[in-house]
Amino acid sequence: MDTFNSPDDIDHHRRHFFGTAALAIAATQLALTGSANAQSATTPQPGNKKPAALAATKPGTNTSFGALKQIDAGLLNVGYAEAGPADGPAVLLLHGWPYDIYCYVDVAPLLAQAGYRVIVPYLRGYGTTHFLSDATLRSGQPAAVAVDIIALMDALKIEKAVIGGCDWGARTANIMAVLWPERCKAMVSVSGYLIGAQQAGKMPLPPKAELQWWYQFYFATDRGRAGYEKYRDDFAKLIWRTASPKWDFDDATFARSAASLANPDHVGIVVHNYRWRLGIAEGEAQYADLEKRLAEAPVVGVPTVTMEGDANGAPHPEPSAYAKKFTGPYKHHLIRGGIGHNLPQEAPEAFANAVVEVDKL
């Protein structure tokens, strides 16, 4: 098991973070800016046979969301960005590690202008999202993260939505699609089928493949936890550059996302996630039945578009290895042009088009 701070320590760090840094994050959220504001697109209509055409946009067109919102949902008070009409069809966009909601800063306005209600939440351990109780385990267990998003949908009174995600967000979308298909209208998943199990995580891989997961083994040690705590930004920037070797992001782009990693629960959740996957950290009993179902690698029946960048430097499966896991309407797209692991931020137009496309499958 991971060790966690005492309630007094947690209270101190939470007051400091959510009293200063979180306010700073919220204060920098301006109205969506850039040329995307002037773009127009066809409002989604149920009878459309073809996806609505979205206006062209370049990565980095937008640098902020509108003012963030907060809502109690399940175990959390969730911070999230929202764009588009309140009565539009819902789209939830989920980020991964070590990224944040800015993965979708250029995707959200495109979908909003196409008539969608777009929700982009900070996952547990990121940004302004925080636990309601100091007693809750700071768990990164995959099923727990998925339950968080179902609770968010309940709190926002969203019955069904298109779910899009990359990295942890794609895994969460996969889990939602198999455990709660009635809540998932369709899915866009970067790098395809990512549902795993502890037993599979215990199986050794060839040395070259193990090397790609170096940080997972680093986090398995006390030194690794302390190192991530001490060098959080440097660590994240290294992962960004390794996972997207051709993405020429600037310091300001990185800094906007790095701010969300200052969440006081972040390190504990990240370390627990990777230790749980290796089978060296216990999960929570309340998710045991869900994890048992996931361990069977169930197929996904909801309409799905999977995507991959042609320059993804992170570990990822080949599309041919997972295509048969999707039994409903299904398409796969390889996005060319030096696109890496953080596909929505590197190729926002392609990702937004995939959301519109899967909504029509």
Keywords:
39% helix; 14% strand; 9 strands; 15 helices; 361 residues; alpha/beta; disordered N terminus; single chain; Rossmann fold
What would you note in describing this structure?
- By secondary structure, this protein is α/β, with parallel strands linked by helices.
- The chain has one domain: Alpha/Beta hydrolase fold, catalytic domain (Rossmann fold), CATH 3.40.50.1820.
- 39% of the residues lie in helices and 14% in strands.
- It is built from 15 helices and nine strands.
- The chain has helices spanning 7-27, 107-113, 142-155, 168-179, 198-201, 207-212, 214-219, 222-230, 232-243, 251-258, 266-278, 288-294, 319-322, 343-346, 348-360, and strands at 69-73, 76-83, 90-94, 117-121, 130-131, 161-165, 184-190, 304-309, 330-335.
- Strands 1, 2, 3, 4, 5, 6, 7, 8 and 9 form a nine-stranded mixed sheet that branches.
- It is globular, with a radius of gyration of 19 Å.
- Mean pLDDT is 88; it is low at 1-17 and 19-51.
